[in-house]
Design goal:
Elements (H helix, E strand, L loop, with lengths): L7 H5 L33 E5 L1 H4 L10 H6 L1 H7 L3 E4 L27 H13 L3 E6 L9 H8 L11 E2 L20 E4 L4 E4 L14 H17 L3 E4 L16 E5 L5 E3 L10 H13 L6 E4 L6 H6 L10 E2 L2 H4 L6 H13 L7 E3 L8 H5 L5 H13 L4 E5 L20 H6 L43 H6 L4 H14 L1 H5 L1 E4 L7 E7 L5 E7 L5 E3 L13 E6 L12 E3 L4 E6 L1
Helix pairs in contact: 7-8, 13-16
Length: about 575
């Protein structure tokens, strides 16, 4: 399945008081972001994903690095970012650009040194920005010493750290399981005449989580980073941790995927119940560190019922499993958004929702939601769904600018291996990983003018860039900045309850944010290409005010006289305080 219509999973089968210390046992206590009440910091956080190769190159080799990120911290602070999620920066052969880790406790020299990492952590702290690491527990690189040992013989002590099996016959793998990155999930190793399981590339052998030594080793790596004082982890592909022990074949479904393989059900290779025990143990570990460390899950799941399980029956698993239903709906459909946001409010047993619209695996939201005419206004609506609901917000570099997915046009230019395997149906993920567009200088300020960036800078950089958009009042960046500031400063938008309004309407999506002491904010988004006029009567919501004071609205919109007539231009947004 292409990423235009579906999300990555489809392809994979895809404070408190005044100060908060984030210090680990080895790190000094630091004052970080402050909240009004005793909520954990991550509840109101804006988490910003950085794809390190593509954010800022500091040494002119065309590849982004840690010192580059440090240079850009002031920008992130001005934007209002609370935490950075760093896609993997560990030593790696870079087959999957860092998601194939060969050492969990070091820094890839391409990105810098451990001293550079420590400086980034310290400089981020000064700006009240936390660092969240990407933790890949499902698999390692085939160049990781663990796998090299495991592969060396059938009797090696680490043989059982990975999933090795005999084939069904000469040249026939143990079963029909498929890699999310195309073709069989089994690779034959001639030396020991057995096959190993790889959910992703063959260079990413899956660890065997049924072996307790694996948990012990991985938790050791997690402690290493906790001791450094990182704020938490984003768990890569975490529902894939376990597979059926008996290796039963997956059910074959009609049709084929973009690699030409038969579609398979994934119930024997994905989201197995065994994963929850590991999540509970991991949460115990992170809870044993001070400062409110957070565990976030890359949880592409079929529905809210499955998502709910990831919070844990006793709220003892992940604090923030990602809700991939809302952000990857991929349709400007007010009714569907209403129902998904409502589910996130009511059906996760009081857990905190985490919405995300963009990341390094999916076509950017600008392209997925845009209609080619109103993209900027639609992007404002998307930003409003992310930042004016009650969700913790996760965004991806360049989302705030309206960066577009710019895929390679020739197969010989493709860097992401899945783009080579699946070309032309699957062009890979290069298009959403292009360099950050900082300014109008050659290479968009990402690297020196004479360097060749690892991926080409899209030509849109001349008009879509930080420098220009910071100066323009009606730019998408200015919209993000204002929304983020409102979300921090306005009590109702910060931590008020959320109630969906005009529940029958398909044209306008609106909701009410309300504090316990009765401060109310109305948010209304036009989901059509036509002007809409909406009358709100909020008496049944316990809101008596009839007047409204504009907090933020789409540039050029008329000021409403009262709640009885709020006019929204095509894909317009209105946010107002009820008085
Ligand atoms: C999910 C990551 O986001 C993606 O980039 C990666 O290729 C796979 N997991 C495998 O680690």
């Amino acid at each position: 399945m292409s990423r235009t219509g579906g999300h990555f999973v489809s392809r994979l089968v895809a404070l408190v008081g005044l100060a908060l210390s984030l210090a680990g046992p080895c790190a000094g206590a630091q004052a970080l972001s402050v909240d009004h009440k005793s909520d954990p910091w991550w509840k109101h956080a804006l988490i910003y994903e950085i794809y390190p190769r593509s954010f800022q190159d500091s040494n002119g080799d065309g590849v982004g690095d840690l010192n580059g990120i440090t240079q850009r911290l002031d920008y992130l602070q001005t934007l209002g970012v609370d935490a950075i999620w760093l896609s993997p920066i560990y030593p790696s052969p870079q087959v999957d650009f860092g998601y194939d880790i060969s050492n969990y406790e070091a820094i890839d020299p391409q990105y810098g040194t451990m001293a550079d990492f420590d400086r980034l952590l310290a400089e981020a702290r000064k700006r009240k920005i936390r660092i969240i690491m990407d933790m890949v527990m499902n698999h390692t690189s085939d160049k990781h010493p663990w796998f090299i040992e495991s592969k060396s013989s059938k009797t090696n002590p680490k043989r059982g750290w990975y999933v090795w099996r005999d084939g069904k016959g000469p040249g026939v793998p143990p079963n029909n399981w498929e890699s999310g990155f195309g073709h069989s999930a089994w690779k034959f190793d001639p030396k020991t005449s057995q096959w190993y399981y790889h959910r992703f590339y063959p260079e990413q052998p899956d660890l065997n989580w049924r072996n307790p030594e694996v948990e012990h080793a991985m938790f050791g790596a997690i402690r290493f980073w906790l001791n450094k004082g990182v704020a938490g982890f984003r768990l890569d592909a975490i529902p894939a941790l376990f597979e059926d022990e008996q290796l039963r074949g997956e059910k074959v479904l009609p049709g084929a995927n973009s690699y030409g393989d038969p579609n398979l059900d994934d119930s024997l290779t994905n989201n197995l119940p065994e994963v929850h025990q590991v999540m509970r143990s991991l949460r115990k570990l992170t809870n044993s560190y001070p400062g409110g460390r957070v565990v976030i899950g890359e949880t592409y799941l079929p529905d809210i019922g499955e998502l709910r399980k990831w919070y844990g029956a006793d709220h003892d698993e992940l604090q923030l499993p990602m809700d991939m239903q809302v952000g990857f709906l991929n349709k400007m459909d007010a009714s569907l958004f209403r129902s998904l946001i409502d589910q996130a409010e009511h059906d996760i047993d009081g857990g905190q929702p985490l919405f995300v619209f963009d990341n390094h695996d999916n076509i950017r939201s600008w392209n997925r939601y845009g209609d080619g005419v109103h993209n900027l206004d639609i992007a404002r609506v998307i930003a409003t769904l992310l930042l004016a609901t009650r969700s913790t917000a996760m965004m991806y570099y360049g989302e705030e600018l309206g960066m577009t997915t710019t895929p390679p046009t020739r197969v010989e230019d493709v860097k992401d291996p899945i783009g080579k395997i699946g070309w032309p149906a699957e062009k890979g993920r290069d298009g959403e990983r292009t360099p950050m567009q900082w300014d109008g200088a050659p290479n968009a300020g990402f690297t020196t003018a004479s360097a060749t960036p690892w991926l080409p800078v899209p030509s849109s950089y001349k008009t879509v860039n930080v420098a220009l958009e910071s100066r323009e009042d009606d730019s998408l960046l200015s919209w993000y900045q204002r929304l983020i500031q409102l979300r921090r400063e306005n009590p109702a938008l910060h931590d008020g309850s959320l109630t969906m309004l005009n529940v029958d309407g398909n044209n306008v999506l609106s909701w009410l944010r309300k504090t316990a002491d009765g401060q109310s904010v109305l948010v209304a988004c036009n989901f059509t290409a036509h002007q809409q006029t909406v009358a709100f009567d909020l008496s049944s919501q316990g809101v008596s005010g009839r007047q409204i004071k504009t907090l933020l609205q789409t540039p050029g919109s008329p000021e409403p006289d009262s709640l009885a007539s709020v006019k929204l231009p095509p894909y317009g947004v209105y946010i107002g305080q009820i008085q």
